[in-house]
Amino acid sequence: MTGGSRGIGRRIAELLAGDGMDVVLTYRREAESADAVVEGIRRQGGSARAHRLELESEADIDRLFEDEFGDGERLDVLVASAAASAFRPLAELSTRNLERSWATNVRSFVLLAQRAAQRMPAGGRIVAVTSYGSHRAFPLYGAIGSDKAAVESWVRHLAGELGPAGITVNAVNGGLIDTDSLHHFYGQGGVPGLDVMIPRIPMARLGTPDDMAEAVRFLASPGAGYITGHTLVVDGGMTVVAPPFRSELGRDDPTRSGTESTPEGRQHTAPPQGER
């Protein structure tokens, strides 16, 4: 799996290793963190190893498979969790920003899926981790949000092509998940703070890496063998609501006051259930 040194990727690696999988997790810069994840998994009796990977490099992706899955070694599950991009307004995105974002988030997923499928002769699972920026537009997220939308489109196309080989391809789309990356993004100037965002989520809390990891775990399991080409949204209901948000309504909010507004603006008390 890619991006297994911290956050969501770390919990995915730990859960899958706990289920008895031999986990190969990749990292780009966080060697010490990746080693700590591997050591923790091994202390719990699991099997894991870390491999440095530059997702922008096709040669590095080839090297990963040659080193870790050579000599016909079978691969059962590929999880693409790593992502990176520039958080900038449209006018400030350079060609280099766009190229690197696409190569890291989209091209790498297709290359990984190609090579993984070659090592799944008896079928397997491919799961991509995406985010709610794939279907909602918000400031500074255009580059990676569009890339994640492209990944979800690739999930559908790959599912259609790889299905006859017994390979399922799905995505897990996360909302506001409590990770370092989330706090980095919402800590930038001009972006509303999490104290503003959390009350807008129907579940009234941030998601956790475990929430995401359990969804990936399910899609990687035998129980998900007939699910393919879909995106499972794990966002506490955030993307099913729209303004006005309940947290921003005044005292006239009928869900909190027990009253209902008439067309003229007057209010009357709603009768108890069963009374007329």
From TrEMBL:
Start and end residues of each stretch annotated as Disordered: 244-276
Signal peptide: none
Keyword NADP: no
InterPro entries found in the cross-reference section: NAD(P)-bd_dom_sf, SDR_fam
GO molecular function annotation: oxidoreductase activity
Protein family: Belongs to the short-chain dehydrogenases/reductases (SDR) family.
This protein's name: SDR family oxidoreductase
Annotated source species: Leifsonia sp. NPDC080035
